[in-house]
Amino acid sequence: MPGGAGLVLSVHGEPRFLPALLVHSVQACPRLSAVPGSPLGMAWVAGKVIPVARIGDTGSHLVVCLAAGEVVGLAGVEVEKTGFFEPSGDGVSNTSVKDMNIATQSSERRQKIRMPTNVQPRAKATSNRM
Questions:
Q1: Number of independent structural domains in the chain
Q2: Which domain holds residue 30?
Q3: DSSP string of 28-94, one letter each residue
Q4: Structural domain contains residue 124
Q5: Does some domain include residue 49?
Q6: Is 122 inside any structural domain?
Q7: How do residues 14-63 score in pLDDT, each as one tens digit?
């Protein structure tokens, strides 16, 4: 189990460790908008619309992370602890936790997105300038 600076989050009542290197910000969960045909939602955060994965059923925080070069929000989580945590058995600092692999979770959710079958590629624009 990796340790170091990070967050201990509660997801479905289970503690999870999220390394601080992946965390951009933590805030109260804003209003989320559904995206039809997608397991991801979206939210307005710091002047931008970001994709949001709801990974828990309850929780008042939105954790904004950088995963695989993309910004993604994690909703349905509660931040339990923050700080520097020493690796300890199956957890960190005497707290049994599961590691969170944000890149895997966000890519699994993206793979579940149903793409319409009737979408045709756009024709290239042509210019009539001389």
A1: 1
A2: 4-111
A3: E----EE-TT-S-EEEEETTEEEEEEE-SSS-SEEEEEEETTEEEEEEEEEEEEEEEE-EETTEETT
A4: no
A5: yes
A6: no
A7: 888 888 889 999 999 999 999 999 889 999 999 999 999 998 888 899 99
Task: Write out the two tokens for 17.
Answer: 């460790």
pLDDT band at 65 (very low <50, low <70, confident <90, very high): very high
Question: Which of 17-25's residues contact partners 24+ apart within 8 Å by CB, and which partners?
Answer: 17/85, 17/91, 17/92, 17/97, 17/98, 17/99, 17/100, 18/63, 18/65, 18/100, 18/102, 22/65, 22/66, 22/67, 22/102, 23/63, 23/64, 23/65, 24/64, 24/65, 24/66, 24/71, 25/63, 25/64
pTM of the full predicted structure? 0.69
Look at residue 82 and tell me if it is in a domain.
yes
Question: Average pLDDT, stretch 83-112?
Answer: 59
Banded pLDDT at 122 (limits 50, 70, 90) = very low
